[in-house]
Amino acid sequence: MPVRALVAAGEVFGISSESVRVALVRLLARGTIERNERGQYRIAAAAEPIQRHVVSWTHLDERLVPWRGGWVAVHSAGVGRGARAQTRRGRRALNFLGLRALAKELWVRPDNLKGGVAAVRAELHGLGLEPTVLVFGLEQLDDAAEARARALWDTAALRRGYAEMGAALDRSAQRLGRLPARNAMVESFLLGGRAIRQIVLDPLLPEPIIPSGELAQLVDSMRRYDRLGRNCWKPFMTAHDAPHLQTPRSMPAMDNVLPA
User: Fold this and answer.
1) CA-CA distance, 212 to 205, in Å (whole number)?
2) 179 vs 199: CA distance, rounded Å
3) How far apart are CA 104 and CA 93, in angstroms?
4) Which of 155, 165, 169, 186 is deepest in the core (most CB within 10 A)?
5) Domains contained in the chain, CATH given
6) Which tens digit of pLDDT belongs to each residue from 39-52?
């Protein structure tokens, strides 16, 4: 993205050019973005694991496999004892993959992601979990521990969130075409960002724990809304010679969809 496009986009949201430039300097310092020879900004290599995870919302169905009852577990004794940034990355990685604390320093999630424990381990480490933290498979919990594990997620709140966000997307989709161009740009970006954040942070629970299909309906609604939002932004992006992608499998991870 050229700097002029980022500055102009900030103006759409009432953000000063100075604030945009300060944010770019900070992101450069953190290694989240980098500049090319033309002075354009792009996602840096260090942020690519987060980028890949964020864009996974477009094809969640490809990430899931039938659940056979096992769990992916993380012994988190090494999380929270290092530098503050390291601790934040480790906690964020656990949150991204939907793990919850079953016992002190023991985090779990259903083993229903494609690639199993090895894939979850690699993604956790890529997202910032320290390589020394143990990630392993867990089987044959006793009945009480199994019940506690299945109750770690507030499934009622998740289902309510699917319905509420889906309804919000549908309402916005119906009015975007009637809004002034800038209003439509702002609404589609902010609401779309909220929806993507919700989907990206979903724990992707299997059918025995939460009914299937409701998250998939939200993802379908967001795919449709994504096309509408990109159309709202297309004239702006074209005018500023910025890339205009169609629901890509690889796209920049944006701060408004990422947890702190």
Assistant:
1) 9
2) 26
3) 18
4) 169
5) 3-46 (no CATH), 65-150 (3.30.70), 153-257 (no CATH)
6) 789 899 988 888 88
